[in-house]
From TrEMBL:
<dbReference type="InterPro" id="IPR036866">
    <property type="entry name" value="RibonucZ/Hydroxyglut_hydro"/>
</dbReference>
<dbReference type="Pfam" id="PF12706">
    <property type="entry name" value="Lactamase_B_2"/>
</dbReference>
<keyword id="KW-0378">Hydrolase</keyword>
<dbReference type="Pfam" id="PF18456">
    <property type="entry name" value="CmlA_N"/>
</dbReference>
<dbReference type="InterPro" id="IPR041141">
    <property type="entry name" value="CmlA_N"/>
</dbReference>
<dbReference type="GO" id="GO:0005737">
    <property type="term" value="C:cytoplasm"/>
</dbReference>
<feature type="domain" description="Diiron non-heme beta-hydroxylase N-terminal">
    <location>
        <begin position="7"/>
        <end position="239"/>
    </location>
</feature>
<protein>
    <submittedName>
        <fullName>MBL fold metallo-hydrolase</fullName>
    </submittedName>
</protein>
<feature type="domain" description="Metallo-beta-lactamase">
    <location>
        <begin position="270"/>
        <end position="421"/>
    </location>
</feature>
<dbReference type="InterPro" id="IPR001279">
    <property type="entry name" value="Metallo-B-lactamas"/>
</dbReference>
<dbReference type="GO" id="GO:0016787">
    <property type="term" value="F:hydrolase activity"/>
</dbReference>
Length: 531
């Protein structure tokens, strides 16, 4: 006798992992992943195994929470050692790739402006055929990767992928970039080793809204018999609350936290930079997975930073997303992995790229790509884009972490965008140093002074006011500040009242209000209508 169909509980967390580490964009591309494994993960684990007490002591200081300290008790050193040994064994190719990259860099540094032809045979054997050697116009040599070929090479290791499933009852989650997920099966954690692109994930996550037999999804995911009881705790006969599609006039705008905004008309639904809270009883009201419509026609991604391109919610929404729109970028530069390729290889079938001032028609409007200046430590990253969303005669600018380093840009942009009803802008005006995110890609460490000067910072008040004065939006919303507690696993902000980011934000709000512009910095949840 078959049992009645069940729903996936709304408080089941699903963390995509790569060798047990939280899978963020640099781990998704085979061009960059080996460097993060070799130059970050292995080094952190070696350091912890050699002296775990240093890590435990460092993490007692809140200022060091975002640093390269592994967040485990000393008693787990054996497990970390086992993971380190397994990583060194299974990822031996990554270790060789990292060594080959150092050799390649030395080779490129030896080029003096003469033909690069003779360098090809001297490219490290592992990388030959995967790179083109080029000069910039100042005769500085560099390598461009044929990234699509790397996805079809042994460097793309789907066997390292897994998803950790468990129930949560609150927002607190450990910071993931310096700590792997160890085996917490005694606490109800279940790690399922199946590539992200596998269709069984769609079967599972569709059950958040559509009930199905437990046995079928259990078998599709290949859950072992001994894990059957834990797996069964993730399901319930209770249906979720209804989440009807918006059917009113104009545009409804719902803030889901950070840079995630759901923009809906009667004809189309658009979700930006998905970062979505799970659903559980809480004192902080928020929209959650349970509030997303059955069909999300377009997901817009602004850039690859881990708080904007997050595989965790994307994987869970894949079955209900129509098209993912990403910045064109790519081009094979090590610092700029293609967002399109990484999403396609994670099982997204319809991924389209948009470039600056390019437009994509959508029902009742269009999406237009706009320049996204700065916020990447002056690195030549093209995989970033602000989005103009035109629906039902209204225009919303989703500017993410754009830093208005040159206000004249917005003078040039203004005639192309016309009047803007609502502008969303991030104001994380401090940002981390360049090495915090890009360090494992650097052939040699930057001086501390250089590193501290080249930050991943968005606009401060003066620059945000520059944008407002030039684009003259009717309404301004400050977002993408990492304030919501469901961001704690990827951002360590620790804001207080006098944090410069909040001081700058308040200055922008005051400026807007003085000039009759409706302005707000939503927290947790917000809803407005443009009619
Ligand atoms: Fe960013
Ligand atoms: Fe951000």
């Amino acid at each position: 006798m078959s049992r009645p169909p069940v729903y996936l509980k709304q408080n089941v967390v699903a963390e995509p992992l790569h060798n047990q580490w939280y899978a963020w964009w640099f781990l998704a591309s085979p061009m960059t992943a080996p460097l993060f494994v070799a130059n970050l993960h292995v080094k952190i684990m070696e350091s912890f195994v050699a002296n775990p007490a240093i890590h435990v002591a460092a993490l007692k200081s809140p200022a060091l929470r975002g640093g390269p300290y592994l967040n485990c008790g000393v008693e787990r050193v054996g497990e970390v050692k086992a993971l380190l040994e397994r990583t060194l064994q299974e990822e031996s190719l990554a270790m060789r790739y990292a060594a080959a990259m150092r050799e390649l860099d030395a080779l490129l540094a030896s080029a003096e402006g003469y033909s690069l032809e003779e360098l090809y045979p001297r490219v490290p054997d592992l990388l030959r055929g995967y790179v083109e050697l080029t000069y910039d116009l100042r005769n500085r040599a560099s390598a461009r990767f044929f990234e699509p070929l790397l996805y079809r090479s042994p460097f793309h290791r789907e066997s390292s992928q897994s998803v950790s499933l468990r129930l949560v009852h609150g927002d607190a989650r450990p910071y993931v970039f310096s700590t792997p997920r160890l085996d917490d099966s005694r606490e109800g954690d279940l790690q399922v080793r199946l590539p992200f692109r596998h269709e069984a994930w769609d079967t599972l996550f569709a059950m958040r809204r559509t009930p199905a037999p437990l046995e079928a999804v259990r078998d599709a995911l290949g859950i072992a018999p001994q894990d059957g009881d834990t797996f069964a705790t993730f399901f319930t006969p209770e249906p979720p609350r209804p989440a009807p599609r918006y059917d009113g006039d104009g545009v409804r705008v719902r803030y889901f936290g950070h840079a995630c905004v759901l923009i809906e008309s009667r004809h189309v639904s658009v979700l930006t930079d998905p970062v979505v809270s799970y659903d559980f009883p809480t004192d902080l009201p928020r929209f959650t997975f349970a509030d997303l419509p059955e069909r999300i026609d377009y997901v817009l991604l602004t850039h690859g930073h881990a708080d904007h391109l997050m595989f965790e919610p994307l994987l869970q929404l894949r079955h209900r997303i129509g098209t993912v729109v990403v910045p064109a970028g790519g081009g094979g530069a090590l610092v700029d992995p293609s967002l399109k390729l990484m999403l396609q290889h994670a099982g997204f079938r319809d991924v389209v790229t948009l470039s600056e001032l390019e437009s994509l028609p959508v029902p009742g409007g269009e999406l237009v790509g706009l320049p996204f200046l700065g916020e990447h430590g002056d690195l030549d990253v093209r995989g970033k884009l602000a989005h103009l969303v035109r629906l039902e005669g209204k225009a919303l600018l989703m500017a993410a972490d754009s830093n208005a380093l040159e206000p004249r840009l917005y003078e040039h942009v203004q005639p192309h965008v016309g009047s803007i009803d609502m502008m969303w802008l991030g104001m994380e005006s401090e940002g981390g140093p360049l090495s915090w995110m890009y360090g494992p890609l650097l052939p040699a460490p930057l001086s501390r002074k250089m590193d501290q000067s080249r930050r991943l910072n968005g606009s401060n008040a003066a620059r945000a006011i520059d944008i407002v004065q030039r684009l003259k939006p009717r309404q301004v919303r400050i977002y993408a500040m990492g304030r919501e507690p469901w961001l704690g696993h990827v951002m360590v902000m620790g804001y207080h009242e006098q944090s410069p980011q909040l001081v700058e934000s308040r200055k922008l709000l005051a400026h807007c209000r003085e000039h009759g512009v409706d302005a707000d910095m939503p927290y947790g949840q917000a809803e407005s209508f443009l009619r």
